[in-house]
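Weekly structure sync, notes
Attendees: PL, DS, HV (note-taker this week)

Item 1: Polysaccharide biosynthesis family protein
DS walked through the input record. Source organism listed as Anoxybacteroides amylolyticum. Sequence as pasted into the shared doc:
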Amino acid sequence: MSSKLLRGTFILTAGVLLSRILGLVYVIPFYPLVGKQGGALYSYGYVPYQIFISLATAGVPLAVSKFVSKYNALGEYRTGYRLFRSGLVLMTMTGLAACAILYMIAPWIAPFVIDEQIKGNSVADVVTVIRAVSFALIIVPVMSLIRGFFQGHESMGPTAASQVVEQLIRIVFLLASCYIVLRVLHGSLVTAVSLATFAAFIGAVGGLAVLVWYWWKRRSYLAQLLTKDRGQLHPPLKDMYKELIMYAAPFVFVGLATPLYQLIDQFTFNRAMTEIGLAKISEEAYSIFNVWAQKLVIIPVTLATSFGLTLIPTITKAYVANDRKSLRKYLNQTFQVVLFLTVPAVVGMAVLAEPVYAAFYSYDSLGGEVLRWYAPTAILFALFSVTAAVLQGINQQRFTVVSLTLGLLVKLLLNTFLITQFATIGAVLATTFGYFVSVTLNLWIIKKYTNYRYKLVIRRTLLIGIFTAVMSVVVTTVLHICEWLVHYNGGRIESIVIVTISAIFGAGVYWAMSERIGLLALLFGERFTFLQRKKKAVS
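Item 1 (cont.): predicted structure, written out as tokens:
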């Protein structure tokens, strides 16, 4: 791999991580502004938008990148440029159509979300918020195409910069508009949340402006490439789009996983809670589960998959070369890295659930309980992302569609029943069972098509489990000592102190045991050379 591409990959990865971190951190000031009811209303609008945006753009940057890169390597620069010019028109039309459809069907979606017995947000409120966020669909598809075009030229800077700028502008507008409406003008919650969702459009404008600037800056270089075009290939647009769809399809389904699970909850949660006489707290519980706790659960998933997915290109290369030994090695390392990072993080989060929730938002007994049950599901979230990527690497991505469909079916069949039995925790359990089915099927398909054996991963998982159990005892002990010393009563500052101290002790113990036994060196020795001298054989 060229140094230019390595540098570009690093820049893009850094941009994605920074963008995701910003997307997690903003909820800290957002929660006290809009509260539980506002969080629920925000989710009612944002979940349908995420589904539409996934259908319209998921996979487009990577698919266009792959397409342009392929034809550039053949010296057919004009072919990629033809796709780009045609794609701009198509993506503009797609964006306008998606915006119009979501705007028009908002009155149809809203009644499925809100039950008349719920004393909170109304059907009209949901319609307003969905329509406010729909405008972002006009710009985001075009922006995705331009990002992919730049990436196809091994230029990752424009994508990274536009992602960060888009997220920054969105968050600043979101927080500022909510603050002005609610605290300065003393306006309605619906207006504030509508502007919070409309922030997606404002952020997209900022991201697009960055890409246009890069385009203007590099227009002469791109024009020079066209003069070098060999001109031997002239594929029709129909064939070009067919190839593009084949590249993009797997990423669409992976991107749809979380929004579709949330959509099932959006359509069933409130009604199921009403059935068991919990209509008064339904929206508050929904926002805790599907907005605030979910944001926290995603944190360890983001960190773990960022490490694990870096190995996917090497898995693809080994599979194509039929190098079974290297393939087993890379699969072993991928699964172990993900589990090594995710398992202790989510178990620690479950142990510290109440102070963690209070540290980010405010003390809430239901919030702590939901987070305690929801945190372990993050292991399945991470494994689903990684196994789906592995299936893509071994060219069996069609099974991702099958596994996701089966998981969603399990979620749909169990959700209402489990909610009526266990209230909010029932929705968490249904999500867990759904992802468990998807991950199990993905792991089986990987075994079938690669002859991969999970013996080593199982042994290492048991070792990680032992380390995590010891860590949990330490964290629990430190937690009780801290609560006693500070006379803990759920305060935010107290919670931050307790979580910080407990996490430091827990992470220290986990790190020390892993380093002592040699597991840390085996997994990260190539990344952290100072560990190599202490590397031992762990079986």
